[in-house]
Design a protein that fits this description.
Shape: elongated
CATH architecture of one domain: Beta Barrel
CATH class of one domain: Mainly Beta
Radius of gyration: 43 Å
Number of strands: 12
Largest sheet: 6 strands, antiparallel, barrel
Number of helices: 2
Order of helices and strands: HHEEEEEEEEEEEE
Distance between the termini: 111 Å
Length: 268
């Protein structure tokens, strides 16, 4: 007639009522420790102990839950503060590096007698056929085709086209680029032609020319593009073939084109 669950609940209620009755009877004689007291303690103490343990466990779980929630919120706040601090640090570092690069440009401008226009590299040639970059100066700034472009380290290239606000620069490492140059120490002339992103060929250097690895190569000023005396690179490889009139010479350019960000356009 009754389910097992109902029977269990009824037994628990009867057990609790019996313990309450025993406690009330023993309460009338608090100074006596009779068999009723023993029965009451044996019945009620385990029950009280289990109830208290359950309450303590729930209180422990509840307090730790809120503690963990608070810790999580604090951790999220600290992570956000750390991310903001890291962004500020990177911004400050980038500003410092930009100031250093601009300082180098100003120093170079003070050393060169020609009028120069600072500009930033804002794009690359997506085709990959030519080694060119886009700068944020154009005809409105006085930039036109054929003007030389340089950096504090050395020659970058020359302008091959200009729109109203932008200009395209052919880099010295492009295979179609050619710079009339000479060895600074001995004044032997040749033509610097682009080859790779790091080296260029120094052509038409006769075999009897006195050149050495480590010699600096500068612009001669005879090509009508680059003023005389601009740094190009340093001789890194020399070989003398058995046939022919010229040596095979390669130079390592001073400019790191992979990290090129600011340049100067020579307006004259």
């Amino acid at each position: 007639m009754f389910s097992k669950r109902s029977v269990r609940i009824l037994c628990v209620i009867l057990f609790a009522l019996s313990n309450i009755i025993l406690l009330s009877i023993s309460a009338k004689h608090p100074h006596r420790y009779t068999i009723i007291h023993r029965v009451a303690m044996a019945g009620i103490v385990p029950f009280q102990e289990s109830v208290i343990s359950t309450m303590r466990f729930c209180r422990h779980i509840w307090s730790h839950y809120f503690y963990l929630v608070a810790v999580r919120q604090e951790c999220d706040q600290l992570q956000e503060i750390l991310a903001r601090a890291e962004m500020e640090k990177n911004r400050s570092l980038e500003s410092e590096l930009a100031c250093q690069r601009l300082r180098n440009l100003l120093e170079m401008k003070s050393e060169v007698s020609h009028r120069m226009l600072p500009s930033q590299v804002v794009g690359l040639d997506p085709s990959g056929w030519f080694k060119t970059v886009i700068i944020n100066r154009g005809s409105m700034d006085g930039v036109s085709k054929g003007m030389a472009v340089t950096a504090p380290e050395g020659i970058v290239g020359h302008v091959i086209g200009a729109s109203y606000r932008y200009a395209k620069v052919l880099l010295a490492i492009d295979r179609s680029s050619a710079i009339d140059a000479l060895v600074q120490r001995t004044r032997f002339r040749g033509i610097v032609e682009g080859e790779t992103s790091e080296t260029c060929r120094f052509k038409y250097i006769v075999k009897k020319a006195d050149i050495r690895i480590g010699d600096t190569v500068i612009s001669s000023g005879l090509d009508g593009l680059f003023p005389k005396g601009l740094r190009v690179g340093v001789i890194s490889e020399i070989s003398k073939p058995l046939s022919g009139l010229f040596q095979e010479v390669r130079i390592r350019l001073f400019v790191d084109f992979a990290r090129l960000e600011e340049v100067m356009v020579i307006l004259e």
